[in-house]
Amino acid sequence: MTHALIVIDMQNDFCPGGALAVAGGDEIVAGINALMGDFDAVILTQDWHPAEHSSFASSHPGKAPFETVEMAYGTQVLWPDHCVQGSNGAAFHAGLDTSRADMILRKGYNPAIDSYSAFFENDHETATGPDGYLRTRGIGALTMAGLATDFCVNFSAVDAARLGYAVTVREALCRAIDLDGSLAAAWRAMADAGVTVA
Ligand code: VGL
Ligand code: ZN
Prior knowledge:
The chain is of the alpha/beta class and 198 residues long. It is 20% helix and 24% strand. The strands form two sheets. It has a six-stranded parallel sheet with strand order 5-2-1-6-7-8. Strands 3-4 form a two-stranded antiparallel ribbon. A hairpin with a 2-residue loop joins strand 3 and strand 4. Helix 3 runs parallel beside helix 4. The model has no long low-confidence stretch (mean pLDDT 98). Residues 47, 49, 55, 82-83, 108 line the site of zinc ion (ZN).
């Protein structure tokens, strides 16, 4: 089966020193690069928000990062400003081998809705595009790695499994935010969706 590697959000803002740093986020860059040659296709995702995005705590007076708000599409965690379009924080980690990417998918560009998943925005309805790309290339299996395990990797893996892909998450090549048990919940959600953890 044609097999793609999907590298999730390996960007400066999710690495140590970044605006929404994930502990050890930079440790997985070399391992991800080393994996790329094993796949028929490599897709990179890039969190790519307009300034004043609705997922930023700074867009909600009186709210602090990591608090939640109720949006039309459900509960949304509020984040520090991060991955603002064109900023250095939104750029890929300098060590990531972007030369191998067949496709770079930018997500989270709609100011009114967050998009953790590579496949659907957080309303779980609005498609972001790669399903069509993958199907037309005959890709049926996906391996995922990157940041953050419990948000963008989790949502991407669960959505891909629901779309019918055979999905594997490389646990050692992911790092988590782990907010109030979100990592344990994410592993449960991925297992329930039929995602393989390797
Ligand atoms: C992510 C929170 C906000 C992620 C992106 O890449 O997991 N998390 N935006
Ligand atoms: Zn984001």
